Amino acid sequence: MPQTRPRQTDVARAAGVSQATVSSVLNGQASGRRIPPETIDKVERAIRTLGYVPDVIARSLQGMSNQLLGVHTYESMFPIDHHDYYQPFLLGIEEEAEAAGYDLVLFTSTRDEEGVRRVYKNGSNRLKVADGCIFVGIRVDKAELRRLAAEDYPFVFIGRRDVPGVDLHFVTGDYADSTARVVHTLADLGHVRIGHLQQRDRDEPRQDLARGRRRGLADRGLPAVRPVVVDPGAIGPATLGGLLDSRVTAVLVDNAVQAAALGKAARAAKLRIPADLSVVVLQDTPPKPPAARDWTCLRMPRVELGRLGVRLLLSLLNGSAGAAPLVAQCGFHPGATIGRPRTI
Q: Where's the HTH lacI-type domain (predicted)?
């Protein structure tokens, strides 16, 4: 006959106390109910001896804390490679959760029959196993987020997300301010016409990058060059030729994949980066050695954003969260892909 898991009644019997006493010890209420230290010690010894583990589902239904934080994404992104884009976020989440004494639950079984991950798979909210949840990734389902917010379930996004009618809690990088500073750096080198290769998917953080570019140009009184919206696979000689025809001497690119495609097109055209065209990557990707080029780039504070996400979620759980998002400062890596323009 298979062995059943120990229950609170088993712990109470082994410790020689009531089940109510066991429940008080498990819920951290022993001191408030004046349970003697020696009784607490007996209960804890019985728990260790029997290998008792609380039923997290039952505790959640009773509104108790499970000391569990969830991590959910609408896309497949849980990495095994330390060069992966998302791995630093998870590293920061893990470090901060461990420091706070919480365990993590990675929600990976929420994919529906159409292959799309859902919070409400089969109509039920699996996230409620955890006390609250951190969302990571680009894709979102705003209808689900509205429903989740209406349930008062605590959750935090890494990256700014806007859902009309819902006050979402999020942590973000100072993307607009950092991009404006990049434009200032290029202007100080003598660049006047600064282009922008934008990814077609314009999520909120990328909107912040574009806003920072516009602000930086306005700060220095530089002309606004129309951005080029292009996916990495479509970047080629025509893209490069269009930039040069518009007399651009420096270009911002949203990510390292676009930069690599632009670099390949430049080599084919026998153009030198940065002698003929300066390039700055606005959202870096952790490099895979050996790196083909030392791109000048903004360093997204991924580890810090993971940490801030946990801190904000914990403040929601204890009722101390403010209305303002938590913001981490991006770093700037000088790299080797910017210089003075061809002509000043």
A: 6-63
